[in-house]
Amino acid sequence: MAVGRPRGFDRDTALERALEEFWRHGYEAASITALTAAMGIRPPSLYAAFGDKRRLFGEAVRHYQRTHGAFTTRALAEEPTARQAVERMLREAAVHYTDPAHPPGCLVISAAVNHGPDSADVEAELRALREAAKHAVVERISRDIAAGLLPADTDAEALGTYYAVIVQGMSRQAQDGADARALDRVATLAMAAWPAEHP
């Protein structure tokens, strides 16, 4: 047992609580004092188990992607067409981003909106994850174009970027108080922009 670690310390539970603190307040505003209070541990336990705040955040982001944020990857992998995958992604975002069981919106979208120069690497990490998510949508659309399911002149890059913008806006709206029903209506309108599919 590491020095400073309290009896009964549950690393996974502590990580989830740290994740929620970062999710609710963002990277910079989540102080060590606030994090350790949320995690139910003392600072020495945080450093012993997770390293420093930056490494804790990186691990929290990876945990988020495996759990709360995994619905986007599942939709792209499991649905038979890009249209079905994107629609599922948007409709599930409406539900997940407004679930009262956790902070609203998406951690990867909002955790480093405002940051100082000392946290530029945090924003770079999250930007890379957002770009990777967008690229996954573009790739899924490109596969359907190649398969003849979408018109050959479909702009996969622009279409994928459009839906990335929609997802980011839905996250912000959830943080501003929009409910799942309102965001689901946004998803319906957004899907009206989808190109006519070939039979």
UniProtKB/TrEMBL annotation:
One of the entry's Gene Ontology molecular-function terms is: DNA binding
Q: Which UniProt keywords apply?
A: DNA-binding, Transcription, Transcription regulation
Question: InterPro entries given for it?
Answer: Homeodomain-like_sf (IPR009057), HTH_TetR (IPR001647), Tet_transcr_reg_TetR-rel_C_sf (IPR036271), TetR_C (IPR011075)
PROSITE patterns with a match to the protein in the record: HTH_TETR_2
| Pfam families attached to this UniProt entry | TetR_C_13, TetR_N
Residue ranges flagged as DNA-binding region = 31-50
Segments forming domain HTH tetR-type: 8-68
Task: Tell me what this protein is called.
Answer: TetR/AcrR family transcriptional regulator
Species for this entry: Actinomadura craniellae
Organism lineage string: Bacteria, Bacillati, Actinomycetota, Actinomycetes, Streptosporangiales
